[in-house]
Amino acid sequence: MSRVVRKIIKTPRAPLPLAPYSQAVQVNDTMYISGQLGMDPSSGALVGNGDVVEEARQALDNMKAILEEAGLSMNHVVKTTVLLADINDFVRVNEVYGKYFTAGTYPARAAYQVAALPKSARVEIEAIAAVGEIEDQAKL
Question: Which of 16, 24, 103, 140 has the most crowded CB, counting CB atoms within 10 A?
């Protein structure tokens, strides 16, 4: 049986978890980032007074802080899941989301409307990142 190395990633630059889970867990060359809400890391309060754009921006900033704690960047993200309280916010969230990733190497993604999110948030974003040097291959 092969050995699996697990590392818990934690940073004060992202909000503390609301329940018994980690901000992120790295297993060998893969990092799993827990769903990030648009919460201010210092206060734990949602930002933007219900503005999904501000919440999305903060959620992605929180994700970026977690990645940086592990020595990674948004470029290492290979898959995201976006959870929306209202699917009609899809376009507005995309406008913010697209600014955090490089065109041509966007991560794979799924987006869903859900019945409710913690803290009555409008958006939550989770991710999977590859750990190591990223080499983009040209399309065949």
Answer: 24
One-letter amino acid at 64 equals: K
Please tell me what DSSP assigns to residue 43. Answer: T
Rounded alpha-carbon distances, angstroms, from residue 40 to 62, 65, 121: 8, 12, 12
How confident is the model over 66-75, as a mean pLDDT? 98
By residue count, the chain amounts to 140
DSSP string, 57-118: HHHHHHHHHHHHHTT--GGGEEEEEEEES-GGGHHHHHHHHGGGS-TTSPPEEEEEE-S--G
The pLDDT value given to residue 138: 66
In angstroms, the CA 32 to CA 35 distance is: 9
Percent of all residues in the chain with a pLDDT value above 70, rounded to a whole number: 98
Question: Residue 115: CA atoms inside 13 Å, Cβ hemisphere, count?
Answer: 0
User: Is the pLDDT at 140 greater than 80, yes or no?
Assistant: no
pTM value is 0.95
